[in-house]
Amino acid sequence: MSGDSFIHKLDPRDKLISATLIIIISFLANEPLSALILGLICLLILLVSKIKLLFFFRGIRFFLIMIAFTAILQLLFANNGEELFSVGPIRITSFGAKIASLTFFRFSLAIIIATLFTLTTSMIQISDAVGYLIRPLKIFKLPVDDIVLTLSIALRFIPTMLQEISTISDAQKARGSSLNSRSIAKKIKAIVPILMPLFIASVRRAEDLATAMIMRGYSDGKKEVCQMVLKDSFYPLEISSCGRSFLLFY
Question: Could you read off the pLDDT of 55-95 as tens digits, one per residue?
Fold first, then answer.
């Protein structure tokens, strides 16, 4: 998501490291005060990014609902600790309430931070940041450049695949497919006509992408031309978006 906020302009390596640290700290936080501080920090970051709150939470509401459902299960079935109250067979304890609140807080915070990171960082920048962090693995002769290239391609085509699924679904609905049926069996049966065209379209796109890579001179193991170089005095190494020009024009 394009923007000109301070968060958008940050180095992607800084954002990736910071997002990872915040998520790790959230899973280590067991006190209400630390959870409150982390929550306020996330809210402040979200406000600084200038992303509309309604738009942001609409995008992650499905995940929040699933996390809330998991937390409710923890609340109902974790029966250790002091009993707070009970209604029939349902027994709510202090331990269950603590586990449920921590579960909801930790996973919600992880979803919010991860979504905020992906909304304020382009796909190429994300792959560059990952490439910088895993660059030391070259010592073990791992194909770091190929891993980054694969990640770039995967991130680049996620929106394309989602659009393809939406187009195929609309076409199937126009032909009378029961995608909105409440029956699970009918929904599963209706998914098959979507998967087959999607698979064929994916193979065709892969062939076109391979042709684009060859025509632009990509070859494994050879020095590649860089489109962009991320350079910061804070970092001892430079990281560049190399060998991915075909993604910019494909």
Answer: 888 888 888 888 998 888 888 887 777 777 777 777 788 78
Cβ atoms of 112 and 59 closer than 8 Å = no
Instruction: Report phi then psi at 230, rounded to 5.
Output: -90, 120
Q: How far apart are CA 111 and CA 22, in angstroms?
A: 11
CB 225 within 8 A of CB 244: no
- Say which residues have a Cβ less than 8 Å from residue 180's Cβ, sequence separation at least 6: 173
CB burial class (10 A; 0-12, 13-18, 19+) of residue 233?
A: exposed
3-class secondary-structure state, position 3: coil
Compute the chain's Rg from CA coordinates. 23
Cα–Cα distance measured from residue 199 to residue 234, given in angstroms and rounded to the nearest whole number:
44
For residue 152, the SS3 value is helix
pLDDT in tens, 188-211: 676 777 788 888 888 888 888 888
Determine contact, residues 52/139, Cβ cutoff 8 Å: no
